[in-house]
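okkk here we go again. third time trying to get the fe (ii) ion bound version out, last two times i messed up the smiles copy paste (missing a bracket lol). double checked this time i swear
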Amino acid sequence: MKKISRRQFLYFSTSLSLSYPLSIVVASSEDNKLDENDLFPITIAVLNSAYRSEIIASDHYVGYSRKAVEERYPNIAYLFAAFAVSEKIHAENYKKILASLNAGPEEPEFEIFILDTKANLISASEGELKKIKETYPDFLTELKKESHDKAVINCMYSWKSHRQHKRKISEIQKYSKWFFGSVAKKIEGMKFDFHVCEICGSTIDEAPKTPCDICNYPILHYHKVIKPA
Ligand SMILES: [Fe+2]
Ligand SMILES: [Fe+2]
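finally!!
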Protein backbone atom coordinates (compact mmCIF):
# COMPACT_ATOMS: atom_id res chain seq x y z
CA MET A 1 0.00 0.00 0.00
CA LYS A 2 1.32 3.43 -0.89
CA LYS A 3 0.81 5.85 1.95
CA ILE A 4 1.84 9.48 1.71
CA SER A 5 0.98 12.62 3.59
CA ARG A 6 -1.24 15.22 1.96
CA ARG A 7 1.66 17.68 1.83
CA GLN A 8 3.79 15.26 -0.20
CA PHE A 9 0.81 14.39 -2.33
CA LEU A 10 0.09 17.98 -3.27
CA TYR A 11 3.67 18.38 -4.39
CA PHE A 12 3.49 15.31 -6.64
CA SER A 13 0.02 15.94 -7.99
CA THR A 14 0.91 19.26 -9.58
CA SER A 15 2.09 17.20 -12.55
CA LEU A 16 -1.36 15.77 -13.21
CA SER A 17 -3.24 17.83 -15.73
CA LEU A 18 -6.78 18.19 -14.56
CA SER A 19 -7.22 21.48 -16.31
CA TYR A 20 -10.71 22.50 -15.40
CA PRO A 21 -12.04 25.94 -14.66
CA LEU A 22 -13.01 26.00 -11.04
CA SER A 23 -14.81 29.29 -11.39
CA ILE A 24 -18.02 28.20 -9.85
CA VAL A 25 -20.61 28.60 -7.86
CA VAL A 26 -23.97 28.92 -6.36
CA ALA A 27 -22.50 30.36 -3.20
CA SER A 28 -20.81 33.72 -3.35
CA SER A 29 -18.72 35.37 -0.69
CA GLU A 30 -20.60 38.56 -1.56
CA ASP A 31 -23.67 37.04 -0.02
CA ASN A 32 -24.61 36.71 3.61
CA LYS A 33 -22.44 39.63 4.60
CA LEU A 34 -23.81 39.74 8.09
CA ASP A 35 -21.61 38.25 10.73
CA GLU A 36 -23.64 35.10 10.83
CA ASN A 37 -21.21 32.70 12.41
CA ASP A 38 -23.08 32.93 15.69
CA LEU A 39 -26.37 32.26 13.95
CA PHE A 40 -25.33 29.08 12.15
CA PRO A 41 -23.05 27.07 14.44
CA ILE A 42 -24.42 23.70 13.30
CA THR A 43 -24.21 24.71 9.64
CA ILE A 44 -20.60 25.81 10.06
CA ALA A 45 -19.65 22.56 11.78
CA VAL A 46 -21.33 20.49 9.07
CA LEU A 47 -19.79 22.50 6.23
CA ASN A 48 -16.34 22.08 7.73
CA SER A 49 -16.89 18.31 7.93
CA ALA A 50 -18.26 18.24 4.40
CA TYR A 51 -15.33 20.31 3.11
CA ARG A 52 -12.87 17.91 4.71
CA SER A 53 -14.68 14.90 3.30
CA GLU A 54 -14.73 16.32 -0.24
CA ILE A 55 -11.07 17.39 -0.19
CA ILE A 56 -10.07 13.92 0.97
CA ALA A 57 -12.16 12.36 -1.78
CA SER A 58 -10.84 14.71 -4.47
CA ASP A 59 -7.20 14.12 -3.55
CA HIS A 60 -7.73 10.36 -3.48
CA TYR A 61 -9.35 10.41 -6.90
CA VAL A 62 -6.41 12.37 -8.29
CA GLY A 63 -4.12 9.67 -6.87
CA TYR A 64 -6.31 6.86 -8.22
CA SER A 65 -6.27 8.51 -11.62
CA ARG A 66 -2.49 8.72 -11.68
CA LYS A 67 -2.22 5.09 -10.61
CA ALA A 68 -4.60 3.99 -13.37
CA VAL A 69 -2.52 5.90 -15.92
CA GLU A 70 0.58 4.09 -14.63
CA GLU A 71 -1.20 0.75 -14.93
CA ARG A 72 -2.40 1.58 -18.44
CA TYR A 73 -6.09 1.90 -17.76
CA PRO A 74 -6.66 5.25 -19.45
CA ASN A 75 -10.45 5.18 -19.33
CA ILE A 76 -10.55 4.27 -15.65
CA ALA A 77 -8.02 7.05 -15.09
CA TYR A 78 -10.37 9.37 -16.94
CA LEU A 79 -13.31 8.33 -14.75
CA PHE A 80 -11.30 9.00 -11.59
CA ALA A 81 -10.13 12.35 -12.98
CA ALA A 82 -13.74 13.39 -13.61
CA PHE A 83 -14.70 12.39 -10.08
CA ALA A 84 -11.77 14.37 -8.69
CA VAL A 85 -13.06 17.48 -10.46
CA SER A 86 -16.58 16.88 -9.17
CA GLU A 87 -15.41 16.43 -5.58
CA LYS A 88 -13.31 19.57 -5.82
CA ILE A 89 -16.38 21.52 -6.90
CA HIS A 90 -18.28 20.24 -3.87
CA ALA A 91 -15.40 21.29 -1.62
CA GLU A 92 -15.15 24.74 -3.22
CA ASN A 93 -18.88 25.26 -2.82
CA TYR A 94 -18.64 24.56 0.91
CA LYS A 95 -15.57 26.76 1.20
CA LYS A 96 -17.42 29.71 -0.35
CA ILE A 97 -20.41 29.31 1.93
CA LEU A 98 -18.09 29.11 4.95
CA ALA A 99 -16.34 32.28 3.78
CA SER A 100 -19.71 34.02 3.54
CA LEU A 101 -20.25 33.03 7.18
CA ASN A 102 -16.78 34.30 8.16
CA ALA A 103 -15.95 30.80 9.23
CA GLY A 104 -13.11 28.96 7.67
CA PRO A 105 -12.80 26.37 6.36
CA GLU A 106 -10.26 24.54 8.46
CA GLU A 107 -7.70 23.05 6.03
CA PRO A 108 -7.54 19.32 6.78
CA GLU A 109 -4.40 17.26 7.27
CA PHE A 110 -4.77 13.62 6.27
CA GLU A 111 -2.97 10.71 4.68
CA ILE A 112 -3.62 9.40 1.21
CA PHE A 113 -3.81 5.69 0.50
CA ILE A 114 -3.26 4.56 -3.06
CA LEU A 115 -3.47 0.86 -3.92
CA ASP A 116 -3.67 -0.78 -7.34
CA THR A 117 -6.50 0.19 -9.65
CA LYS A 118 -8.67 -2.81 -8.84
CA ALA A 119 -8.43 -2.09 -5.09
CA ASN A 120 -8.84 1.65 -5.68
CA LEU A 121 -12.13 0.97 -7.46
CA ILE A 122 -13.35 -1.02 -4.47
CA SER A 123 -12.29 1.74 -2.04
CA ALA A 124 -13.95 4.35 -4.21
CA SER A 125 -17.15 2.38 -4.37
CA GLU A 126 -17.24 1.86 -0.60
CA GLY A 127 -16.52 5.55 -0.03
CA GLU A 128 -19.30 6.68 -2.34
CA LEU A 129 -21.77 4.23 -0.78
CA LYS A 130 -20.97 5.47 2.72
CA LYS A 131 -21.52 9.05 1.64
CA ILE A 132 -24.84 8.23 0.03
CA LYS A 133 -26.20 6.11 2.88
CA GLU A 134 -24.72 7.75 5.97
CA THR A 135 -22.60 10.86 5.60
CA TYR A 136 -24.89 13.03 3.50
CA PRO A 137 -28.18 12.02 5.12
CA ASP A 138 -26.57 12.90 8.48
CA PHE A 139 -25.29 16.24 7.14
CA LEU A 140 -28.72 17.11 5.76
CA THR A 141 -30.49 16.18 8.99
CA GLU A 142 -28.17 18.54 10.87
CA LEU A 143 -28.35 21.34 8.29
CA LYS A 144 -32.12 21.36 8.33
CA LYS A 145 -32.02 22.44 11.99
CA GLU A 146 -30.81 25.88 10.86
CA SER A 147 -32.09 25.89 7.26
CA HIS A 148 -29.28 27.92 5.73
CA ASP A 149 -30.60 27.71 2.17
CA LYS A 150 -27.31 27.63 0.28
CA ALA A 151 -25.82 25.08 2.63
CA VAL A 152 -28.80 22.77 2.27
CA ILE A 153 -28.99 23.18 -1.52
CA ASN A 154 -25.28 22.53 -2.02
CA CYS A 155 -25.37 19.55 0.27
CA MET A 156 -28.25 18.14 -1.78
CA TYR A 157 -26.26 18.74 -4.96
CA SER A 158 -23.30 16.82 -3.55
CA TRP A 159 -25.45 13.98 -2.32
CA LYS A 160 -27.08 13.53 -5.73
CA SER A 161 -23.74 13.80 -7.46
CA HIS A 162 -22.36 11.02 -5.27
CA ARG A 163 -25.25 8.83 -6.34
CA GLN A 164 -24.11 9.34 -9.95
CA HIS A 165 -20.56 8.39 -9.00
CA LYS A 166 -21.71 5.27 -7.22
CA ARG A 167 -23.81 4.15 -10.19
CA LYS A 168 -20.87 4.63 -12.53
CA ILE A 169 -18.39 2.78 -10.32
CA SER A 170 -20.86 -0.03 -9.69
CA GLU A 171 -21.12 -0.70 -13.40
CA ILE A 172 -17.38 -1.29 -13.45
CA GLN A 173 -17.07 -3.01 -10.13
CA LYS A 174 -19.95 -5.46 -10.52
CA TYR A 175 -17.84 -8.16 -12.12
CA SER A 176 -14.43 -6.79 -11.25
CA LYS A 177 -13.90 -8.99 -8.21
CA TRP A 178 -13.42 -12.09 -10.32
CA PHE A 179 -13.01 -10.78 -13.85
CA PHE A 180 -11.19 -7.49 -13.42
CA GLY A 181 -8.96 -8.08 -16.44
CA SER A 182 -11.82 -8.64 -18.86
CA VAL A 183 -13.97 -5.86 -17.35
CA ALA A 184 -11.08 -3.43 -17.57
CA LYS A 185 -10.43 -4.45 -21.17
CA LYS A 186 -14.07 -3.82 -22.04
CA ILE A 187 -14.00 -0.40 -20.36
CA GLU A 188 -10.85 0.56 -22.18
CA GLY A 189 -12.60 -0.20 -25.45
CA MET A 190 -15.41 2.27 -24.68
CA LYS A 191 -15.64 5.91 -25.63
CA PHE A 192 -16.04 8.39 -22.78
CA ASP A 193 -16.34 12.13 -22.92
CA PHE A 194 -16.63 13.20 -19.29
CA HIS A 195 -18.27 16.50 -18.49
CA VAL A 196 -18.78 17.99 -15.02
CA CYS A 197 -21.26 20.70 -14.06
CA GLU A 198 -19.44 23.60 -12.42
CA ILE A 199 -22.46 24.43 -10.27
CA CYS A 200 -23.19 21.10 -8.62
CA GLY A 201 -20.50 18.61 -9.66
CA SER A 202 -22.86 16.49 -11.76
CA THR A 203 -20.68 14.04 -13.69
CA ILE A 204 -21.75 12.62 -17.06
CA ASP A 205 -19.81 10.54 -19.56
CA GLU A 206 -20.91 12.24 -22.76
CA ALA A 207 -21.44 15.80 -23.95
CA PRO A 208 -24.57 17.26 -22.32
CA LYS A 209 -27.72 17.54 -24.40
CA THR A 210 -30.09 18.89 -21.76
CA PRO A 211 -29.79 21.14 -18.67
CA CYS A 212 -28.14 19.62 -15.64
CA ASP A 213 -30.16 16.80 -14.09
CA ILE A 214 -29.14 17.83 -10.59
CA CYS A 215 -29.14 21.65 -10.44
CA ASN A 216 -31.11 22.34 -13.62
CA TYR A 217 -28.63 25.00 -14.78
CA PRO A 218 -28.11 25.28 -18.57
CA ILE A 219 -25.71 23.12 -20.57
CA LEU A 220 -23.11 25.89 -20.69
CA HIS A 221 -22.24 25.16 -17.06
CA TYR A 222 -20.91 21.75 -18.04
CA HIS A 223 -17.21 21.59 -18.85
CA LYS A 224 -15.31 18.81 -20.49
CA VAL A 225 -12.74 17.08 -18.31
CA ILE A 226 -9.34 16.70 -19.95
CA LYS A 227 -8.28 13.06 -20.26
CA PRO A 228 -5.18 12.44 -18.14
CA ALA A 229 -2.11 11.17 -19.95
FE1 LIG B 1 -18.42 15.03 -3.39
FE1 LIG C 1 -25.46 20.99 -12.18
